[in-house]
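U., I forgot to send this yesterday:
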Amino acid sequence: MSHPVRIPADVDREDRVLGSLTARQLFILTVAGIVLYGGYLATRTVLPIAVFLVFAIPIGGAATFVVLGCRDGLSLDRLLWAAVRQRLTPQHRVAAPEGVRPAPAWLTAADTSHSTVSPAPLRLPARSVTEAGVIDLGRDGLVVVATCGTVNFQLNTATEQEGLVVVFGRYLHSLSAPVQILVRAERMDLSAQITDLRASAAGLPHPALEHAAHEHADYLTQLAATTDLLRRQVLLVLREPVLPAGTAPVTRVLRSRRPERIDEATVRAAEGRLAEAVELLAPGGITITALDAGQATAVLAASCNPDSLIPPTAGMAGADDVITTSPDTDWDATAFGPTALPADPDSEELA
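Result:
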């Protein structure tokens, strides 16, 4: 007869080697103790023990606080190391996979701000998005992103809630690769709805309906101007790691041994996992819809720049797309380029 075995929920928790200390914490405290003891041996002939303790106690206390402290589930030493790395890395990054080129002479000559900002290329994990919406992560595998419907858990009865938990638990037990459930909020743009409402108001069969449509459009305009409108989106992110040929899925391999390109077998495996998620979550009333190439690109762009004034959409042109439509009649050809910059009367004309 088999016996149930309890599995800890925090499976990623570090092992404790001495009391409640992990190997990393014990190493940091040991190094701090060695440094303080070395300082004592070097200064014991010139400094009294009381004077040395005045300097040693704050240092030891700071090391202990950094090692044992925790914030948002992360130890303070990790947060401190992350802050140091963030400080040493370039603060301004631009999307330039070919490298950052220097600004033209006519632009730098007209710059009066004397800015010393030196942008660096932005290296993102995502390399490309296929036509099917699969995001290529290179050696890290690939990702399939899908939108998920939501279910109001509180409005269901106790029996229905138990059924939803069983459905979700069955899906969690079927997982064999990393999965991320992302709940993101993005700004809403009501300009299209307001424009359509005003345009269709004149065609309504009754003047009262037309008046109500205009009032509702005015209300939406005021609401968009005075309130930060947000909408919530739930995304299911399925990551399929890439393993060398002949390697078992449970075997961990070095990052450098992973292939540079994803193969069709990996793509089919990711699509199979998506179909499995659709099948297992459907009994709970959760609908899953895979994103196409444009929608997946828009999600990536919005995640990288959430405060953009123009929210990315699937209809926007990509970085490699060639725009062949003619400009509008109100286009001002002199609005950009060297002629748009005012020339300094005391200097020579800019080339």
